[in-house]
């Protein structure tokens, strides 16, 4: 009797399978319901078939169902027979949701629910199915991630299934990942040919498999694996160098951004502005303010805060110039002290008016994420944007200083103030504009910084010493020197970091600059001619 | 430059120095009297807390005198004198740490608590000898002195002066701050050195020791003042003022500008170290915060407020600003940075000669006032 009954159920299940395979990838609601119902009432053998059927259906909800089934959360309501997923099983009443629609059905006493039975054999099968379920979806990016996740986890039955999937796969990247995953398995089985497939792979699992093979019994495979490992190691070193360079350049471009405004006020005008860091802070807070004004549109706010940050910082700079600096002309040490006082006031102002805590600035979608060059190297987008932004700002400043009337007048006033004035240049106006320009660039640096560090009252303080170092290292009054000094200091810092640690690397760089200044007191590119005498 | 005892005698014969020493000793005697003679409840009684606070101010005053020596008389704006102060403080702190012995939390007779905590097995070599007072006190002078010697030798030989020097002194103290924050350095990292028990056998908690430290600080300030006064009135001092006002000309006249600068800079660093060493037992802690560039630049504003190139102005400035700081941070902590920032601006713009300048204008016109362009 019982044999007959299970036979009947088996035919029922097979029938379902047949129906749904005819219907194609997407199971209809009705079939899905019947499959799930079947799962609830079926024997172990039938469940195994139905589970495979669900996984192969290509339905987006299949993963959800299978996961719930495996976790013992797929249940049937005793009274109605409806299949539900238990979303919370704490306490007496469980929260449930309809398995088909995902719609929440509120809470129900656990006595009214009957769990769909599952055992460890079935769980194993479901886990295998789940590992390949993402390989059948339409989105190639999902398939690629799934294929990469399979590396090193392939076993005999899975390998069979993967071979089948590989035949249908048309995306080259996914193919490659699948081939690597299979090769790792084959290498484990002692297949020497698999070494060739893995030779160029940067995947850590592939490397582990090769390392295992290199220690293996077969001398031929071991030799081939050792060679492959060596070439991978070389590739990795190159990639690591590229990554360090990238981080170095991005840190360097932050330094350039921070220092370039200073290079104008300090280098060109000879004014020591210790409040420069706080002008950067104002730029960063402008970005934050913009995002508060335009909630939900972080991208637009960020773009708008580029001109806004420039203006805010430039206005603040001009106020500082008019109220303090102009009274201290020719007294650089006093200027230093006075502007330091201004920086303290600005910091405390932000602490009092806004908050002593850091504010969070949202990074727009198009700036977050990263570009993956290969498995060992990926470039974060926000840093890439900062590098680009720094170069654009630098180019813009170069243009202003070299090609515009203002630039010409600035250079004239710098070289010989009295002579420039007698030629009809309004030196005071040039001072204001130059200082405004340098301050505005500090504001731009702040906008960029808001995307990569915390925006807080101490933001400027942490960059001011570094910025001065960059200007002094590059040679005062030389924008190219500032660019080169910033980029090289950033790169040196990043290169030292792996073996010295972040703090020690910074100390080494500072000591290096202190020693460098002894050797070349006027920086990498000293000013020549009359301007140098000042 | 012949060195004789003459240069120390000369300032003692000056009326201004006598006046300064008189006021200083009278004030110290008054504080001591009010502390010892009057009962606790009396309105005029000076508590042990106040005595220690005044002792702290006197340390700052000595530090300010050291900065005034290089800034006022040599034209070198050091934004890193906090580093010398802190090094002296750390030397003293190491001695006090070793005096704790096995009375620490972990009871290790050999290692300070923080080393036990970090699982260090033995005392690092640079901690050797600090259990002996004479060695530690020698290091109070030598550690900042050596740093100043090496740093100054490199800087002055390459003729790094003016703003450049200011910025690299700031970088120096910043680098040291980062270094001392590291646990691996063996100076207690973030927390620094603290939990001191006694000095030279006297408990640091007793009122008598506190009073003793206050008096010792006052005497150190007096000696430091006389030494500085002696230097600036000597021939060496004349040359250093010449370096300040026209460095190139002094060099062309045949003076070794770099040596003069180096000598004065090292003396100043040692004075700062002594100030730090006296500061630590009174405050009870030394941590890397003393290396912060903000502290170093604060010292400069004390001197600027008091008046550069007067020495006594530095003392007045240090006392005034620190008293104001104590009051402000107690009453409305938020306003302190506004006040300090405003002070920076107001003093440099409206009061370039500081309070001493106001006093001098009242009396006779100064014989040798630093020119406005001195610093340029």
Task: Explain this structure.
The complex is a heterodimer of chains A (534) and B (376). Chain A has 21 helices and seven strands. Chain A has 534 residues and is α+β, with helices and mostly antiparallel strands. Chain A folds into three domains: 116 residues, no CATH class; 104 residues; 274 residues, Orthogonal Bundle (ABC transporter involved in vitamin B12 uptake, BtuC). In chain A, the strands form two sheets. In chain A, strands 4-3-2-1-5 form a five-stranded antiparallel beta sheet. In chain A, a hairpin with a 4-residue loop joins β2 and β3. Chain A is elongated, with a radius of gyration of 33 Å. Chain A starts with a helix and ends in a 15-residue tail after the last helix. About 2% of the residues of chain A have low confidence. In chain B, β2 and β3 form a beta hairpin. Chain B has a two-stranded antiparallel ribbon. Chain B has a two-stranded antiparallel ribbon with strand order 2-3. Chain B has 376 residues and is mostly helical. Helices cover 69% and strands 2% of the residues of chain B. The chains are: A alpha+beta (534), B mainly alpha (376). The interface between A and B is large, with 41 and 45 residues.
